[in-house]
Amino acid sequence: MPIRSTGLVIAFLLFLASCGGSSSSSTASSVATQTASGKVNPVYAKFCAASSKLNAAMAGPHGENPAAITDPTQMAEAWAKITDLSITLQTLAPSSLKKDATMMVDGVIAMNKIFKANKYDLLSIAKKPTVRDALTKIGSDPAITEASTRFNTFLTQNCGV
Fold first, then answer.
1. pTM for this one?
2. Which domain holds residue 139?
């Protein structure tokens, strides 16, 4: 059960940020695979760089630090970094993407609040159906899914991912 719950969190985290090839959205992934140019549109260079930083911070099971899966202190540090980088990305988002970026960042912030309320203890969270359900509810929000697809399309077209 802990691995499944943690897997949902990981999948959602990657889905939310979708800052590269890490997206769990099959539509966005296939678009990225088919049309990625590898070139960054200079108009969006700062935004694309912020996207790359967030993607790097989210690499692996729980950010850059796999130990965060069993260490609440490290989980808190990983999520603080991911949340901060998400907010930076939202700030740099072009106006055409601002609403989608805001929706996705709001999801990251909501998840971080749940993690914080549970002391970033994933093993404990895995034993709490109501907490797992709250995380799943955020991850299954159709509005966030649609925003992520549009976000991924923009990244593919403008950030070369």
1. 0.74
2. 2-158
Is 27 exposed, middle or buried (CB count within 10 Å of its CB: 0-12, 13-18, 19+)?
middle
- In angstroms, how far is the first alpha carbon of the chain from the final one? 34
Identify the bridge partners of residue 62 per DSSP, sorted by sequence position.
64
Helix (H) or strand (E) run with residue 61 in it? strand 61-64
Exposure on the CB side of residue 68, measured as CA atoms within 13 A = 25
Q: 18: how many CB neighbours lie within 10 A of its CB?
A: 29
Helices (H), 1-159: 2-17, 26-35, 45-57, 72-92, 98-117, 122-125, 129-139, 142-158
Interatomic CA distance for residues 100 and 87, integer angstroms: 13
Domain count, the chain: 1
Asked if 76 contacts 66 with a C-beta cutoff of 8 angstroms, the reply is no
Our CA dihedral for 25, 27, 33, 38, rounded to 10 degrees, sits at -70
* pLDDT tens track for 100-138: 999 999 999 999 999 999 999 988 898 899 998 999 899
C-beta of residue 84 within 8 angstroms of C-beta of residue 120: no
